[in-house]
Amino acid sequence: MIPVNIPIITYKDAKEVFNTVKTGWVSSSGSKINKFENELAKLTKRKFSCCVSSGTAALEIAIKGLGIGKGDEVIMPAFTIISNASAIVKNLAKPVLIDSDPITWNIDINKIEKKITKNTKAIMLPHIYGFPNQMDLILKICKKHKLYLIEDAAEMMGQKFYGRPCGSFGDISTFSFYANKHITTGEGGVLLTNNKKIYQKIIELRNLSFGKKDRFNHSDLGWNYRFTNIQAALGLSQIRRIKKIIKRKLEIGNIYYEALKDSENIFIQPKKKKYAHNIYWVFGVLLKGKLSGKKNLIQKKLFKNKIETRPFFWPMHKQEIFKKMGLFKGEKYPVAENLSKNGFYLPSGLGLKNTQIDYVIKELKKII
Ligand SMILES: Cc1ncc(COP(=O)(O)O)c(C=O)c1O
User: Fold this and answer.
1) CATH class of 11-99+106-239
2) Which of 167, 291, 292, 348 could form a disulfide with 153 if both were Cys (CB 3.0 to 4.6 A apart)?
3) Does the beta carbon of 176 sit less than 6 angstroms from any atom of ligand 1?
4) What is the C-alpha separation between 13 and 184, in angstroms, rounded?
5) Which atom of ligand 1 is nearest to the CA of 178?
6) Where in the chain are the domains?
7) pLDDT category, 300, cuts 50, 70, 90?
8) How far away, in angstroms, is 181 Cα from ligand 1 center?
9) Which residue's CA is the closest to the ligand 1 atom numbered 12?
């Protein structure tokens, strides 16, 4: 079976983890955490960095860390991972959805301003699959309407917008270190900011908001979303080769792109926009024309040929849980709906060999 993702953990990575475990500093104290946080801040040109237990945890802390809560609205795309919406809902605020751009699959920027109300406090902005959002336009909207920006760069470590790193744009920016991300610590995430006050709040929130005077007298409800020294050792070992990692992601994406760009009845994202190269966190295929609606069948056929694929995200307004909660009633986002109906992605992990990519291409072409 060719899995959708195979991470690369080198002998050196494993040795770093082994050496760290042997020191006995296995929990959320230990020198590696600060070192990893410093490297992440350096990579994204930020002042402060706070590692947490996942990208989802980072988003939950981000909302609360900015003081967003009951009665507040946060704008976000309909097509993304549930972590964005759940972070808002769990903090008792309201997600306000926007449809996607049909080419980049990111939020449709032209539709944002119409949805801003006096209760809007922030834009939660994931970069989806490969291209960064058009940050100049987003920042302009935030400035004009005095909105916070939470930049969810989970999929975009090492990506740049006009040469400026993703993860450098938000009042808070976040990453994930899940196994399919460019750098993985197994599970993990980080919040980055330039604002000292926000930083102080988020480091409290990741650690149960322990009391400053009396440790067990808490002034706020935080979480145990701590990151471990073992995870940091693994992350530190990998961050040194981030350029090599991005280079390989580009290679994988380009092989797929060149082989599939002229195929009838599938849409694939462009290789390049004026502001960025697609780094293909995952290589997505969107069925169209006479293949429209045949996603499950094609995925099944690929699976029979020992190729694992994943469907695209399920849009927020179609989520069972949000329907039960009475959210997004009667709302329609046709681009997001089409993406989830017709999109899936091919094996795209760093451990993929070129012979495996060639096999995936050959089998996919046969099927379509
Ligand atoms: C855009 C985006 N945000 C957040 C997350 C959640 O990250 P984690 O799995 O570390 O909680 C993901 C996970 O894939 C993601 O793609």
Assistant:
1) alpha beta
2) 167
3) yes
4) 11
5) 10
6) 11-99+106-239, 242-367
7) very high
8) 9
9) 154
Name the strands in the sheet holding 73-77, side by side, starting at the edge strand that comes first in the sequence: 48-52, 189-193, 172-176, 148-152, 120-126, 73-77, 94-98
What is the four-CA torsion angle of 352, 355, 357, 360, rounded to 10 degrees? -120
Q: What is the mean pLDDT of residues 209-236?
A: 97
* pLDDT digits 0-9 by tens, 271-292: 999 999 999 999 999 999 999 9
CA distance 352 to 283: 12
Q: Please compute the mean of the pLDDT values over residues 154-168 and round it to a whole number.
A: 97
- Name, in order, each residue with C-beta under 8 angstroms of 335's C-beta and a sequence gap of 6 or more: 79, 99, 100, 101, 102, 108
Take atom 7 of ligand 1 and give the residue whose Cα is closest: 55
Q: Which CATH class is domain 242-367?
A: alpha beta
CA of 176 to the centre of ligand 1 (A): 6
**Per-residue confidence at 189, pLDDT binned at 50, 70, 90?**
very high
Amino acid at 275: Y
* Ligand 1 pocket test, candidate residues 4, 83, 314, most atoms within 8 A of CB: 83
Q: How far is the CA of 51 from the centre of ligand 1 (A)?
A: 14
Average pLDDT, the chain: 97
Contact between residue 222 and residue 207 where contact means Cβ atoms under 8 Å apart:
yes
